Task: inverse folding
């Protein structure tokens, strides 16, 4: 069963929400049937694609017309929520950067079954390690670290590959009424908006998979046994 997640790497609640979903999946007895698909979303697509190296406090102060200390106070509770979810949100180190190219690489990663791994690596690089997630060498390094082929990564970054996919995700978000992220859609029937507690994800998982099972029942086979070999090498 598919869970589609619209999120932006620049969004701290998207990082927290990913953690909460994964906590719920660890408790869910049928986690093996879940396919998580990461959908692109940009909270601020107008952030320059060339680096200006502002941290989150500077960015918020300028965008919202507030003081630096006020921006720091505004994010204090978010950092605490991150700590409770097991992630470090270091807003003083976090470099505000355009996330478009990072989203393109997530699309590449999903073709190799590594979407969740790269998404986590990008979140950690941005919020914890203070890396520029629009820097070419940083993106190549993160992609290699999760198992993506370097040549394939470079090909994406040196082209417009997956740009249309990113744009399509953003249009689709608008079509289904996504006004903020993270936004989780379960089997196109139920949705969770925001970084809700793991229990909320678990309850929605249980309900949506139970309904999905009516159309996708487990195989129940009557087996006639004969000589065979098992994965442990034993044959009888």
Result:
């Amino acid at each position: 069963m598919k869970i589609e997640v619209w999120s932006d790497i620049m969004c701290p609640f998207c990082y927290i929400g990913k953690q909460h979903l994964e906590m719920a999946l660890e408790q869910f007895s049928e986690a093996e049937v879940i396919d998580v698909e990461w959908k692109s979303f940009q909270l601020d697509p107008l952030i320059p694609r060339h680096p200006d190296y502002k941290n989150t406090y500077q960015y918020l102060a300028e965008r919202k017309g507030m003081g630096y200390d006020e921006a720091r106070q505004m994010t204090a509770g978010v950092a605490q929520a991150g700590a409770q979810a097991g992630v470090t949100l270091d807003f003083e180190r976090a470099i505000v950067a355009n996330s478009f190219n990072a989203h393109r690489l997530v699309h590449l990663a999903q073709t190799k079954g590594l979407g969740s791994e790269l998404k986590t690596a990008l979140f950690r690089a941005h919020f914890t390690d203070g890396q520029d997630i629009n820097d070419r060498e940083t993106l190549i390094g993160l992609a290699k670290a999760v198992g993506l082929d370097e040549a394939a990564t470079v090909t994406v970054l040196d082209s417009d590959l997956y740009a249309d996919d990113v744009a399509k995700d953003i249009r689709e978000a608008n079509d289904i009424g996504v006004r903020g992220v993270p936004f989780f859609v379960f089997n196109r029937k139920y949705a969770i908006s925001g970084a809700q507690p793991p229990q909320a994800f678990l309850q929605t998982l249980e309900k949506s998979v139970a309904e999905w099972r009516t159309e996708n029942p487990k195989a129940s086979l009557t087996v006639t046994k004969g000589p065979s070999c098992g994965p442990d090498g034993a044959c009888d």
